[in-house]
């Protein structure tokens, strides 16, 4: 009879709480690794988007520079002469200035059929 009293008896609830605690710790570790991995992926995506934005800005600046080069009047004049076009510069005396005031007459662009 004395033998049974001297033995320490552990309850089933102790083992159950130990297993539940270990499961919670393992789940916390897995969730920590998952969230940390997701954080790294998101930061890589943000970096990739930043690189794409900078590339698009560079493309825009390059396109604007090319547009400025193509719209340069002296370059256009040289290209027209190089192509052998019949286009010639308009003398300054031929240019007419038109006021922005509208009046009741018909527009120059309108078509009037006279029979």
Structure description:
The model has no long low-confidence stretch (mean pLDDT 84). The protein has helices at residues 2-6, 12-70, 73-82. The N and C termini lie far apart (135 Å). Helix content is 64%, strand content 0%. It contains three helices and no strands. The protein is mostly helical.
Topology at a glance:
Blueprint: H1 2-6, H2 12-70, H3 73-82
Summarize the structure.
By secondary structure, this protein is mostly helical.
Structural class: mainly alpha
Strand content: under 5%
Categorize the overall geometry. Answer: rod-shaped
Termini separation (Å)? 135 Å
Largest sheet: none
SS elements, strand count: 0
Gyration radius from CA atoms, angstroms: 42 Å
Q: What would the keywords be for this entry?
A:
64% helix, 0% strand, 115 residues, mainly alpha
